[in-house]
Amino acid sequence: MQTLIITGGSSGIGKATASLFAERGWCVFELSRHGAENTKTQKPIPGEGKLIHVTCDVCSEDSCREAMAEVLSQTNHIDVVISNAGYGISGPIEFTEISAAEHQMDVNFMGAVRFTQAVLPQLRKQQCGRIIYTSSVAAQLPVPYQAFYSASKAAINALALSLANEVRPFGISVSVIMPGDVSTGFTDARDKSSAGEEIYLSARKAIANMERDERAGMAPVQMAKLFYHIATCYSPRPQYVGGLLYRVLCLLDRILPKRLVNWIEHKLYS
């Protein structure tokens, strides 16, 4: 039975992904601060997998190490690792509390770093494995009033590309998925700040438009299927974009002048 570890697996894209892998016969360790009530340990059944919750806070090095120790007490081999934990904040850069911006980076970026450091010793020992990070189209096309979320995901892209070359000699592959708008509880969980809206008059409308697009976005299972493809294909690519529309937009970003792309984004969110 193949084994998956996924952070942020108790809701949204992570929950859909954990469920899909388990349904397809994998042993899935779902790591999150909450979520035990959403998972259960199953005995292996032909054609079915297991879904096991392990408590983990990616903001704590000790928690990540302890979670990995718990996983390795139940299995001696890890096939795929998905770093998916994250959340979003929004508001004008000028009025964003530094502590809020730091926490955004701590969860989304440093959380991925802590988790990566916890799993790499086992993957190196095995001389194989796949690491997949959840990034965002916002990493390539930064969204106004969502600067720190966009920056955290751009940092994930850089981390993944650097790591890929570091771990290549150990038989480990690294990929990133950049989803477009996906309809999940992520939207309602966003930490929104209204500070400065009386000065940045487009902020409220821009955030409302962004949330409308998210609520009308893809079903999480679409991203789960893309994760499964990357986990099982012969030779995964370094980066994937989730959703046809967003693949086109990212392609246009590479072709068109950056000034024009940024102006179009301004028009969309003003």
Give the distance, in angstroms, between the N- and C-terminal Cα atoms.
51 Å
The secondary-structure class comes to: alpha/beta
Q: In what range is the share of β-strand residues? A: 15-25%
Q: Please provide the count of β strands.
A: 9
What is the general shape? globular
Write down the secondary-structure element order.
EHEEHEEHEHEHEHHEHH
What report would you give on this structure?
The chain has one domain (3-268): NAD(P)-binding Rossmann-like Domain (Rossmann fold, 3-Layer(aba) Sandwich). Helix 1 crosses helix 7, helix 2 packs parallel to helix 3 (98-126) and helix 3 (98-126) packs parallel to helix 4. Mean pLDDT is 92; it is low at 40-46. The protein has nine helices and nine strands. Helices cover 47% and strands 16% of the residues. With 270 residues, the chain is an alpha/beta fold. It has helices at 12-23, 61-72, 98-126, 147-167, 186-189, 203-215, 220-232, 244-255, 258-268, and strands spanning 3-7, 27-32, 50-55, 80-83, 89-90, 129-134, 172-179, 191-192, 239-242. It has a seven-stranded parallel beta sheet with strand order 3-2-1-4-6-7-9, sandwiched between helices.
